[in-house]
């Protein structure tokens, strides 16, 4: 064991020789590690650490030091404080993370002023990347994962859709994007309702939907409990038997919460960039490595964002020769493309936002486990919110 | 007549005099600036929360009005200053003034609702008001930005001179200066006959009318002042963060504030400041040590302090002083 360790150390040391003079690269991550969104932080950290571990904590010849700060979820002043301290006190080269849109918005001025690259790994409002010229996004935007399922529905004999969204910013955005894409493709919205963000009772809404009898319901609620409650009611009231389908954005059925939703999730058609059962050698390797490193968790799209964020840093540093200064880094990262566990992805040279394939999936049982099985896709999709 | 009046006011004047310990306390922010130059954003937010806590101390510690919705004023002030700055009126001091006026109006109006009931009713009313504001801010997406937060704030330099910088130096001195001035005013206030009448109301509300003190008028005045203080604190946070999100109005901000005040010790002004310093420093240190499970240790710390120091940190300090006095044979 000791022998093996020393071999690893020697190999790592040899690999690092060209950059011996280089300072360690400090990456500061601002993530929700406690509170209601702690799962976001955990998954993103898992992914990021997995990539670092696979590369002996060395990216492009520079040793990487990861510093993680908890911003507790939606608390923009803490996110901003964390970002500022990472820059001023810890002297990080790169900011990363950002679980929710307000955190990214609050930290953007820090990246702008300090000229530090800021890699967004989940915050999904379309406008995030416009807030600083140093922001790069490796996750997704809300319109990007909403438009495909609308397009798919219109093409697949779903003519009449009833929309049910939670009454808050992301819900309203999802509703607007769905309506826009779906009606443009010839579909019809036969009813729409906005439910309270906290503890809604879905029973009356479900009854109404059953009476209207649309072809499908477009669902957007905060992922987790509410999906569980909605799908339970949906099953109990026999809406599925009445021929009504559920379509949604894929974050509602992502791997981390899918088991909690349970069998009621079966049959939900949704769109997202990553599925645990995505069929590619990269993903097989990723899933295997993930389970080995974190046997208690399931790999989801957020973990892949963390993983790809580190991959983006590695590839960009290789291009700049280890230089992580803001302008050079961002210039090199623009237009960068690589193969992620989710498939081929790229950074848009104009908007610094992600370009990726969005898959249409259906929740099915695979080897006794609920999974999002991909059956259709919209390739190389830019953020529709910026057009 | 003149002579007897002066005699009556002597204890008040004595209480109003600044003690050496207090002067020493106010050296802390100056020292902190030099000792922790890299933590200025945290220190700024401590100053802001201290001001917010001070406003709760005025209404709870002195007048005995319990509130579980004090964030309503904090948030309203933050949105007032934020919206001003987002629409081209970015002067910070004007922002503070407007926030103070707007929240004072809300405070005055809601004070009549608050005065209607006893403690439990007050908890409900204050909670209700803050929840309503939260929901309004959530719905008015076009104005407030809803869940995504208010964007596009451009805050001008303080007094046209000092620009807000990355290191947070300007923000720090700005927040500390505002805190000091408002603390000084609050101190004058609680040591005035008005402040004493508030104490009287808290201790025995039945007797105060007999002394000729208009109970409801006094309470509504102090509630309005407390609201304005909270509004200014909110405005400070908005200006120094240059961003406002819905969480300024959230319930847990009110609840946490109450916790901080209890931790520090209510009814002494300094308790509010000390409580904030202890709570936020502990929060910061613990969450840096352990990003996942820091809340456990924070909870443990709170329980220990409350168990062993009656009346919070302030009570603990008083106990220490009493013991020292006894040991050195000094008498009060």
From TrEMBL, chain A:
User: Which residue positions does the secretion signal occupy?
Assistant: 1-21
Keywords for the protein's UniProt record, in alphabetical order: Signal
Q: Which residues cross the membrane?
A: none
- Superkingdom assignment: Bacteria
Keyword Nuclease belongs to the record? no
Residues annotated as domain Leucine-binding protein:
24-364
One Pfam family per UniProt: Peripla_BP_6
Under the heading InterPro entries, the entry gives: BCAA_transport, Leu-bd, Peripla_BP_I
Q: Which SUPFAM superfamilies match?
A: Periplasmic binding protein-like I (SSF53822)
Q: Which PANTHER family does the protein's record reference?
A: LEUCINE-SPECIFIC-BINDING PROTEIN, PERIPLASMIC BINDING PROTEIN OF ABC TRANSPORTER FOR NATURAL AMINO ACIDS
Q: Which family does it belong to?
A: Belongs to the leucine-binding protein family.
- What is this protein called in UniProt? ABC transporter substrate-binding protein
Automatic annotation (TrEMBL), chain B:
Name the species this protein comes from: Aromatoleum toluvorans
What are the subcellular locations of this protein?
Cell membrane
Instruction: List the membrane topology term(s).
Output: Multi-pass membrane protein
Name of this chain's protein:
Branched-chain amino acid ABC transporter permease
Tell me which domain of life the UniProt entry assigns to the organism this sequence originates from: Bacteria
> Per UniProt, which keywords does this protein have?
Cell membrane, Membrane, Transmembrane, Transmembrane helix
The transmembrane residues are: 25-52, 59-81, 93-115, 171-190, 222-245, 257-282, 294-313
**One Pfam family per UniProt:** BPD_transp_2
């Amino acid at each position: 064991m000791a022998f093996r360790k020393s071999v690893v150390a020697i190999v790592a040391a040899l690999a690092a020789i060209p950059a011996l003079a280089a300072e360690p690269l400090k990456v500061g991550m601002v993530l929700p590690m406690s509170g209601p969104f702690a799962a976001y932080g955990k998954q993103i950290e898992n992914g990021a650490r997995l990539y670092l571990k696979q590369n002996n904590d060395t990216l492009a010849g520079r040793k990487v030091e990861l510093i993680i700060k908890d911003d507790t979820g939606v608390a923009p002043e803490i996110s901003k404080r964390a970002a500022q301290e990472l820059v001023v006190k810890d002297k990080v080269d790169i900011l990363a993370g950002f679980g929710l849109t307000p955190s990214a918005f609050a930290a953007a001025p820090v990246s702008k002023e300090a000229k530090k690259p800021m890699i967004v790994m989940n915050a999904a409002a379309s406008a995030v990347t416009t807030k600083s010229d140093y922001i790069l996004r490796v996750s997704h935007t809300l319109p990007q994962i909403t438009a495909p399922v609308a397009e798919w529905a219109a093409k697949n004999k779903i003519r009449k859709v009833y929309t049910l969204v939670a009454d808050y910013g992301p819900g309203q955005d999802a509703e607007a994007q769905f309506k826009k894409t779906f009606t443009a493709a010839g579909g019809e919205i036969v009813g729409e309702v906005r439910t309270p963000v906290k503890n809604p009772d879905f029973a009356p809404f479900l009854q109404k939907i059953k009476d209207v009898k649309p072809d499908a319901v477009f669902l957007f609620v905060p992922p987790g409990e509410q999906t569980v409650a909605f799908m339970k009611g949906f099953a109990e009231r026999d809406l599925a038997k009445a021929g009504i389908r559920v379509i949604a954005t894929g974050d509602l059925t992502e791997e981390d919460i899918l088991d909690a939703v349970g069998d009621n999730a079966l049959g939900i058609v949704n769109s997202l960039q990553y599925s645990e059962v995505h069929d590619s050698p990269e993903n097989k390797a990723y899933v295997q490595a993930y389970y080995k490193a974190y046997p208690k968790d399931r790999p989801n799209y957020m973990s892949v964002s963390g993983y790809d964020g580190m991959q983006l840093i590695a590839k960009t540093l290789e291009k700049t020769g280890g230089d992580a200064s803001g302008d050079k880094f961002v210039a090199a990262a623009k237009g960068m493309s690589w193969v992620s566990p989710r498939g081929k992805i790229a950074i848009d040279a104009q908007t610094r936002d992600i370009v990726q394939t969005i898959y249409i999936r259906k929740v099915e049982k695979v080897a006794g486990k609920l999974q999002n099985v991909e059956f259709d896709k919209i390739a190389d999709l830019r953020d529709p919110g910026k057009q | 007549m003149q002579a007897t009046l002066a005699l009556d006011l002597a204890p008040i004047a004595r209480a109003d005099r600044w003690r050496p310990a207090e002067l020493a306390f106010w050296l802390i922010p100056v020292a902190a600036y030099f000792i922790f130059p890299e933590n200025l954003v945290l220190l700024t937010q401590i100053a802001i929360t201290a001001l917010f806590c001070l406003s709760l101390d005025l209404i709870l510690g002195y007048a005995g009005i319990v509130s579980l919705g004090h964030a309503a004023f904090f948030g309203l002030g933050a949105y007032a200053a934020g919206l001003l700055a987002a629409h081209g009126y970015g002067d910070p001091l004007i922002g503070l003034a407007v926030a103070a006026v707007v929240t004072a109006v809300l405070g005055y109006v809601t004070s009549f609702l608050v005065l209607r009931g006893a403690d439990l009713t007050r908890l409900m009313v204050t909670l209700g008001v803050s929840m309503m504001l939260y929901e309004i801010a959530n719905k008015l997406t076009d104005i407030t930005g809803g869940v995504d937060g208010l964007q596009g704030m451009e805050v001008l330099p303080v007094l046209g001179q000092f620009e807000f910088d990355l290191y947070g130096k300007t923000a720090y001195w700005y927040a500390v200066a505002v805190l000091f001035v408002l603390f000084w005013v609050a101190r004058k206030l609680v040591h005035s006959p008005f402040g004493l009448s508030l104490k009287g109301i808290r201790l025995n509300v039945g007797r105060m009318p007999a002394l000729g003190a208009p109970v409801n008028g006094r309470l509504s005045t102090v509630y309005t002042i407390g609201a304005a203080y909270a509004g200014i604190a909110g405005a400070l946070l908005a200006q120094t963060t240059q961003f406002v999100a819905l969480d300024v109005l959230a319930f847990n901000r009110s609840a946490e504030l109450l916790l901080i005040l209890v931790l520090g010790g209510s009814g002494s002004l300094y308790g509010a400041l000390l409580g904030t310093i202890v709570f936020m420093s502990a929060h910061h240190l613990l969450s840096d040590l352990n990003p996942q499970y820091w809340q456990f240790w924070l909870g443990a710390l709170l329980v220990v302090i409350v168990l062993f120091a009656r009346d919070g940190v302030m009570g603990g300090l008083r106990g220490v002083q009493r013991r020292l006095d006894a040991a050195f044979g000094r008498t009060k």
